[in-house]
Every structure is written in structure tokens, then in C-alpha cells.
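INFO batch 0412 | record 1 of 1 | parsing
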Amino acid sequence: MRIRSTLLTALAGLSLLTAPSFAHRMHAGVTEIAVNERTQELEIIHRVYGHDLMEALDRTDLDAATFLAAPEGLAAVGAYAGETFRMADTDGELLTLSYVGAEIDGEFAWIYFSAAIPAEQASFIVDNDLLADTFDDQVMMTNLRFNSAVRTAMQGPGRRAPVRVRFSD
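INFO prediction complete | emitting C-alpha cells
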């Protein structure tokens, strides 16, 4: 019984040590879009794995935190995210996204944008291709919070087309 208990404890410890490597076998990220009540702008926040972002930028030889601490690194991240994430209004007119910045927190890179809220929106079109050009299995979940409702758009393998997210019937 003691051997079994020790074996189970060892296996549990091993699973905790290897959990991050197993947890990141699929490439995934999340984008949150919500209205900032103070500024009355849309806030767009992308969260992706920092090492995946560095691979997409072809900078795997650099540390993500050091890279994002430099003006050139911040500019590269903004340019890349600005090209691979697009959002349009109900009529399909692209929103002008303003790059705010980026930072590393632990293993994640956070990338920030803002945009003016178009008048009287019944829907938005989201095209979230962050990291999809680097990883065939990249999945991006985009959560939109607008007019007290939350909608989710999923894009990934076999589902790369822009998604219309509706906020009215």
C-alpha cells in the first residue's frame, strides 16, 4: 500500500511538471473586445503565448520581454497584429485600430488596441488571423462585449473566414 501511495504521489508530481508542455500542444489565443466606459472607445486586447509571437515575428533568438521593452520590438508587434487582426462595422467598413502597446506577463504576450465605436451597430465583422500564418493549428477565440451582450467568434483550422457577430435580432 505504501509503494502504491508513493507511486501515485510521484505520478501526480510528474504530471504537474509536464502539464505546461502538454497544455500548449495546440496553439491558441484569446481576444477580448469591450467598450471602455470612461473613454467610450472599443478596447481590443489580444493574449497569445509570448514564444509563439516571437516565432511569428521570426525572432526566436530573442527573449520576448527584452524584445517588447525596446521601441523596435513594440513597433514590430503593433505592425504584425495590425495586419493580422481586422474588424469591420455592420456595413463591412474596416475600423481604424489604434495601437496602444504590448507587454509580457509570464508566458503570455498582451497586445492592446483601441477603436472608435461606430454609431448604431447591429453587428461587427471579425477577422482574427493572429499567428495563423505561422501555426496551421492556431485557434483564436474573440469575445465581444457590446450593449450588455457577449458574443464569441472562433477562428481556426478550416474556419479562417471573417465572422459576423450579431448584437440584434
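INFO post-check: Residues 47 and 110 are 5 Å apart (CA to CA).
INFO record closed
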